[in-house]
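[Help] Beginner question about ligand-bound structures

Sorry if this is basic. My supervisor gave me a protein sequence and a SMILES string for flavin-adenine dinucleotide and asked me to "get the holo structure". I don't really know what that means in practice or what format the answer should be in. Inputs are pasted below exactly as I got them.
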Amino acid sequence: MNTRGKRFVESLKDGRSVWLDGKKVEDITTHPAFTGALGTLENLFDMLSDPVMQKKIGFRSPTTGEYVHNAFLVPTTQEHLRQRNEAFKIWADATYGVMSRLSEFARTLITSWHATSEMFREYDNQYPDKIRQFYEFARDEDRFVIQAFGNPQIDRSKDAVGASDLDAHLRIVRKTSEGIYIKGAKTVATGAPYAHDLIIAPNYQVKDTNPEYAHALIVPLNAEGIHMICRESYASTNMDEHPLSARFDEMDAVIVFDNVFIPWERVLLHDHPEAVWKFYNTLKSNALTFHQTVVRLVSKLEFITGIAFAIAESIGVHTFLNVQEKLGELITQVETIKGLMHASEVTTRRDQFGMLIPSSVPLQTARNLGMRFYPRAIEILQQIGAGGYTQTPSTTVENSGEIQAYIETYYRGANVSAAKKVKLFKIAWDIVGSPLASRHELYERLYAGDPSRMYAIQYLASDKKALEERLEQFWNSAGGSDAVDEFRGTVFATDK
Ligand SMILES: Cc1cc2nc3c(=O)[nH]c(=O)nc-3n(C[C@H](O)[C@H](O)[C@H](O)COP(=O)(O)OP(=O)(O)OC[C@H]3O[C@@H](n4cnc5c(N)ncnc54)[C@H](O)[C@@H]3O)c2cc1C
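Answer (accepted):
No worries, everyone starts somewhere. Holo just means with the ligand present. The predicted complex, written as structure tokens, is below.
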């Protein structure tokens, strides 16, 4: 019998064009660059058929009666937020927070766009129907959806002044009564080789003179003319040596669109710079998606912290104050992000469509902290394991091979056998120093957007009034109103 997981894997034999190492991958379901990650995803999808797990991560579709993922649950109560959190955490924990694109982010985008669809009726009367139809289709057909909003990194100095090399940006080149044809490229698309659908929109404000660049689409990734160009694979086929790379290498790709036909039902908005910019901004401030990313971040930081504890104890350095300080810092990271996550769930707001939404400020804060916490967590792991990472035998075969006696003597730990310590250090190396590890550090720094701009957004979007009033109060107590006026004219000049 085909389980939900098997059905997902089989569905990827759909004629998609995936390029790796200069060749088109004939069947990604049997290619070693993808089988590890696909095995992981298969298990995740299977949870929806498991009588116990399906109730924890899903709800019954009102259309089919089958269990579907809670990312599709429109939250209207605190209990819904708890259910969404639980589903995200179970999936995140299944990959120790390492696989970040399990589709819950993009599915949540679809869910919130569906729940707030009336916002865009003024731009296109058919928008609410289109997004509802896709929401129901994605929910009931287990669609694995991802998103890519960036443009190829060609010349950002031109992008910054609106003089981009528009030839590379995605644009509509032809329209017919059935749909549109698009050309250009989008990046970075994590998970693309095994995703069904890709959400795309420009991540900049398109000029009114170039409306063909202003579109919001949901594109089936097996459409003719789409080419997914993968980065080098970091997947390993050896679970013992590279326990994380063997299961969790989620591929990143650039998506090229060479005259790709998109039917009108997948064109949410088109030729409308103002509408599409508003649409993109619903993404940038979407606390429902932020909620998922923060739940996953907790899972990953917990994993790193657990590894650090085990490494420290395995070599007895957990007894030193300087190491305890670092371990304490890791716990502080976990507790900070968890605290912000909980804060967002209790300081909710209800939008005009009845959705109950976690508060975005604590979530944005957690995401911004995550960009700095994660590289620091990896640095701490390096400092604690130190040279031990280079003193691991090249394979675990040595644990029981001809030189076993040396290994047992010289590779043992304070409280663990050599075999166990070698395995532990191999897990740690896979998140500290392997190619997968480097990719992850880059990911955590950047996935939410350019860190400089994300921090700047937090400043620009902050509620400055309360802070301003506090200072004014002090100023008044210390001086007079003239001083306040002068102060307002300088320090807060940009806000006036
Ligand atoms: C591993 C990984 C996976 C990702 N997966 C996804 C995904 O699945 N979907 C998705 O949509 N995105 C994804 N991203 C993309 C991510 O959102 C971008 O990396 C991020 O938005 C930064 O854009 P960029 O990489 O194009 O950097 P650039 O914008 O090219 O920036 C490069 C440098 O130049 C600076 N810079 C550039 N322009 C300006 C400017 N105008 N003013 C001031 N400074 C500037 C930046 O601060 C930065 O230091 C992923 C990124 C990574 C690393």
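A couple of things worth pointing out: The chain has 18 helices and 14 strands. Residues 287-314 form the longest helix (28 residues). Feel free to follow up in the thread.
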